[in-house]
Design a protein that fits this description.
Helix content: 55-70%
Distance between the termini: 91 Å
Order of helices and strands: HHHHEEH
Number of domains: 1
Strand content: under 5%
Low-confidence stretches: none
Largest sheet: 2 strands, antiparallel
Mean pLDDT: 83
Radius of gyration: 39 Å
Strand order of the largest sheet: 1-2
Length: 194
């Protein structure tokens, strides 16, 4: 073993006699807060003024009215087809409107979901085909050769592919769109005041 030199002895004596240095504490800086945006850029709350609620209500009520008018035209075309086919629905008076109302109820309540059985699919597709078909035929019966006073007047052809395409488009629109619009608009209208 080597002997300690004079320098080593002095270093050891110095270490033993010198008071320890104060402990250094490490302080983490606080995370910087993001700058606050001016008040006008902060998101608005869901609370609406009475004016906005009234305007929203009018808009959604207008959408419900449009849905009702589309349903009415589709129902009228279905009843027109049934009259043309020889069904005496005049005896039913206002109860004849239960026919398209029942079609609508079947389409809404039997709309197939992922768990639907083939029976439900069969009934729904049959009712849908009847709805589209009767609206299609009724639109042809009602509209062939008519001039509709829309904007500058639109004349529907007497026959042909254009008439069939217009009637098929009307049948599809009247079968699907009114119920979807009404469900959406009524839900939104209720939400305005809740």
């Amino acid at each position: 073993m080597e002997r300690a030199t004079e320098d080593d002895k002095e270093l050891l004596a110095d270490l033993l006699t010198t008071p320890p240095a104060p402990a250094v504490s490490v302080v983490k800086p606080a995370p910087a807060e993001p700058p606050k945006e001016p008040r006008s850029h902060q998101p608005r709350t869901n609370k609406k003024s009475t004016y906005n609620k009234c305007m929203d209500s009018l808009a959604y009520a207008g959408a419900v009215f449009i849905a009702c008018m589309l349903w009415f035209f589709g129902a009228s075309f279905t009843l027109e087809f049934l009259r043309w086919a020889g069904v005496n629905i005049a005896k039913l008076h206002y109860a004849q409107w239960l026919i398209p109302a029942t079609i609508t109820a079947c389409e809404l309540q039997l709309w197939p979901r992922a768990s639907a059985t083939w029976h439900k699919w069969a009934v729904w597709l049959s009712v849908l085909a009847f709805d589209v078909g009767t609206s299609f035929a009724g639109a042809i019966q009602w509209g062939a050769g008519k001039t509709i006073p829309l904007f500058i007047g639109v004349t529907v052809p007497n026959s042909g592919t254009i008439l069939w395409a217009l009637a098929l488009g009307a049948g599809l629109i009247f079968a699907f769109i009114p119920e979807k619009i009404a469900r959406w608009a009524v839900k939104e209208l209720i939400g305005v005041w809740n």
